[in-house]
Amino acid sequence: MNIRHLLTEKVHAAMIAAGLPEDTNPAVSISARAQFGDYQANGVMGAAKKLKTNPRELAQKVVDNLQLDGIAKQVELAGPGFINIHLDQQWLANQLEAASGDDKLSVSQATEPKTVVVDYSAPNLAKEMHVGHLRSTIIGDAVVRALEFRGEHVIRQNHMGDWGTQFGMLLAHLSDKLAGNEVAETALADLENFYREAKVRFDNEDGFADRARDYVVKLQGGDADCLALWQQFIDISIHHSEEIYDKLNVTLTRNDIMGESAYNEDLPKVIDELVAKNIAVEDQGAKVVFIEEMANKAGEPSVFIVQKSGGGYLYATTDLSACRYRAGQLGADRIIIFTDARQSLHFKQVEITARKAGFLPETTAYDHCPFGMMMGDDGKPFKTRSGGTVKLAELLDEAISRAEQLMAEKIADFSEAERKDIARKVGIGAVKFADLSKNRTSDYIFNWKTMLSFEGATAPYLQYAYTRVQSLFKKAGINATSIEQNMLIDAPQEKALAVKLLQFEEVLDQVIADCTPNLLCSYLYELASLYMSFYEACPILKEDVDDAVKLSRLRLCDVVARTLKQGLDLLGIDVMDRM
Ligand code: ARG
Predict the structure, then answer these.
(1) Distance in Å, CA 160 to ligand 1 centroid
(2) What are phi and psi for residue 194, nearest 5 degrees?
(3) How many Å apart are CA 119 and CA 126, to the nearest integer?
(4) What's the CA-to-centroid distance between 339 and ligand 1, angstroms?
(5) How does 245-264 read in b/e, with b if 16+ C-beta sit within 10 Å?
(6) Residues with CB under 6 A from ligand 1
(7) Atom of ligand 1 at shortest distance to CA of 340?
(8) Could you tell which of 124, 129, 159 is best to mutate to test the pocket of ligand 1, judged by most ligand atoms within 8 Å of the CB?
(9) Domain range summary for the chain, segments of one domain joined by +
(10) The dihedral of CA 45, 47, 51, 56: what is its sign?
């Protein structure tokens, strides 16, 4: 149920009845303040301006034609032509009852599911996953979960960096280790270290660089032994990523991997086609696309190199090939890619070129969703004390151990296993929520203290709100599913909570449209806060509370808990019954 869509339809019909043109936008939005109703329709002003008529008179006409019987209890005209809509409590109660009896909380399913290809995480396998990949991984996963929850057809594509010249030195180094009777798993236990060692040899050791280049040639030539060695390296590195996905509660699996190497065979064809279509031209030995659409102030086109002068292919070539595969083979209606903002130019160039070449039809949306950087307390890019990149695995372990300390301060009769389980959910949840709740495109400061706080918009706060409902039910000795009492929405706190609960779908739609999980984070925080106010104002288990009221309120609490749980689950954050 999307209330905004419903009201938009109704207001639009009234606008047509009032003589306005078909394309008039009702501009329905959630009211900023309760005194302006629950929703507002602000579209009359724009329409009146176009028609050069009096907005208030026009708004009155629209209101006269507005059929919201049973949905709104009051509709009023305000200011120059705002239409304020106050929803009817009985209607809210009926909607909530429907949500209460539904696994999906009344979130409707896409009637014509779209095929959405989502490219996220995509670490480079030559090195260990670092904090830079955290954002892509968890933002992408949240959007994927929201899409699937709405019933869209999602195809995950983990575009791992598994190819390139750096594998030459890595394979040369690995083959030496294996010759020295080391086992690959041990040699590659610390990828970061391994990379560093190989680089030192590459820079300093006589003959090593030549051997490394040799490996590159053999690898590209498809030499079987070399490919087997490469495969071994890749498998172990993928395994490192899988451990992190597991810890992070991310839905990516091995089946979602479509690494850069998967496109190798297609790359010459991509270039041939671009040349045949006169889109790429020869320039100083290289193949280049000059993009006039992206010319600079001096009128010089943007230069997009698709093949190096030595014949080598680039990141760009692979992404063009990926475009064609996703639109053509996978049948994508929409392609979404999550990387940091520094790659924005690249993806713009890819899109324009792919559209010209016909790799990407107009009907396929191409959304590069950039994100800002994670900063340290000093406002500089997040680094270890010694200035190195922070390994994701270590960061997550620290989160869990910090949560464990936090738990130790609380006196409760938890078993060791339960304590560990809670610490993991709180620690990982805190890191994820802190990241997901920020505006995607801005940089943000990583701060342990705020993210693990029980106050403010944090995972622990929301997890705690969830446990409060669970303990309420325990105390009441009632099973939520057994409540048959009709819902009674009476007190203002109940009404505010009801409206908020029924906005779940609306928020998810926005998250999906703009790839902004932060909206879901704010929503859940507001929901939990409204719950706390409701809990303060509306007694539930007190002796003098009427049975019907008590059961209705308990049922309301249950919808709150389930919405919190479902919402957090879409962010990949777990809840627990107590903490
Ligand atoms: N491996 C790349 C990186 O670490 C991200 C790949 C994103 N996806 C793509 N289709 N280029 O920056």
Answers:
(1) 7
(2) -60, -45
(3) 19
(4) 6
(5) bebbbbebeeebbbbbbbbb
(6) 119, 122, 124, 159, 161, 319, 322, 337, 339
(7) 12
(8) 159
(9) 3-87, 166-256
(10) negative
Tokens standing for residue 133: 């990949």
What is the full per-residue pLDDT of the chain (579 aa) written as tens digits?
899 999 999 999 999 999 999 999 999 999 988 889 999 999 999 999 999 999 999 999 999 999 999 999 999 999 999 999 999 999 999 999 999 999 999 999 999 999 999 999 999 999 988 887 999 999 999 999 999 999 999 999 999 999 999 999 999 999 999 999 999 999 999 998 999 999 999 999 999 999 999 999 999 999 999 999 999 999 999 999 999 999 999 999 999 999 999 999 999 999 999 999 999 999 999 999 999 999 999 999 999 999 999 899 999 999 999 999 999 999 999 999 999 999 999 999 999 999 999 999 999 999 999 999 999 988 888 888 788 888 898 999 999 999 999 888 776 788 889 999 999 999 999 999 999 999 999 999 999 999 999 999 999 999 999 999 999 999 999 999 999 999 999 999 999 999 999 999 999 999 999 999 999 999 999 999 999 999 999 999 999 999 999 999 999 999 999 999 999 999 999 999 998
| Atom 5, ligand 1: residue with shortest CA distance | 122
* Closest C-alpha residue for ligand 1 atom 6: 122
CA of residue 224 to ligand 1 center, whole Å: 27
CATH class of 3-87: alpha beta
The first and second tokens of residue 49, run together, are 């301006």
Q: How far apart are CA 280 and CA 206, in angstroms?
A: 40
Which residue, chain included where needed, has tokens 């001096």?
298
End-to-end CA, the chain: 33
Residue 473 corresponds to which tokens in the numbers above? 């039910």
User: For residue 335, how far is its CA from the centre of ligand 1 (angstroms)?
Assistant: 14
**What is the Å distance from ligand 1's center to 123 Cα?**
7
DSSP code, position 109:
P
44 and 55 in contact (C-beta within 8 Å)? yes
